[in-house]
Amino acid sequence: MGCFECCIKCLGGVPYASLVATILCFSGVALFCGCGHVALTGTVAILETHFSKVTSDHAMLSDIIQLMQYVIYGIASFFFLYGIILLAEGFYTTSAVKELHSEFKTTICGRCISGMFVFLTYILGIAWLGVFGFSAVPVFLFYNMWSTCATIKSPMANLTDIDSICVDVRQYGIIPWNATPGKACGSTLGDICSTSEFYLSYHLYIVACAGAGATVIALLIYMMATTYNFAVLKFKSREDCCTKF
């Protein structure tokens, strides 16, 4: 066998679907974890400076955000390892499906492991749909605040009393109703929207939401690839049993 034929045979064993999914998964998780962590820190700074100046009013929220940041560390570590394992499993199953190497044979243990990855990937895909929906919530809240500021600053608005336009974050349940001041109105609200913390946090939440969406797509590709490989391996095992008799 020549060098060219050997290279073609090796390239035939590359799980391109799993490879694309791994790259997309790593990128999506990195964007979600990195941008989400920084955006949460900026959100706490905005709340402490403009909406809840008494520490005890937002103490629980600060603890929850800190816990979420630790969870982000765990998510990043887990998916880095899980992506590598799925890519390795993709190389194994692709070689077994295409029967490129004689040592890659289907076994009961191998099929059980493939089935386990199929089940686990389905569960993670459903979980990340929830994460994607949850990551859209701060985008919605910041968009409402940004659109209100745009209305105040718009020359076409023709407003006589801009102080009557307010954003009350207490109505979203972020801070308790007894938090002071709890809301921002008029020019104060416009100044908040002009701060770097607000601008950065808003756009980072958008990127984090996009990263969660990319991770959902990556897990969907993983599900299709692992399910197909598992089905083919199971079918081949039945063929092997039939040929023995």
Automatic annotation (TrEMBL):
**GO molecular function, a single term:** structural constituent of myelin sheath
Mode of membrane association: Multi-pass membrane protein
One GO process term, biological-process aspect: axon development
Q: Which UniProt keywords apply?
A: Membrane, Transmembrane, Transmembrane helix
Q: Name one GO cellular component term.
A: myelin sheath
The gene from which this protein is expressed is gpm6bb
**What Pfam family is a match, any one?**
Myelin_PLP
Q: Which family does it belong to?
A: Belongs to the myelin proteolipid protein family.
Name of the protein described by the UniProt record: Glycoprotein M6Bb isoform X4
Organism annotation = Notothenia coriiceps
Which InterPro entries does the annotation name?
Myelin_PLP, Myelin_PLP_CS
Q: What residue ranges are annotated as transmembrane?
A: 19-47, 67-92, 113-137, 204-228
**Which top-rank group of organisms is this from?**
Eukaryota
Q: Where in the cell is it found?
A: Membrane
- Name the SMART domains on file: PLP (SM00002)
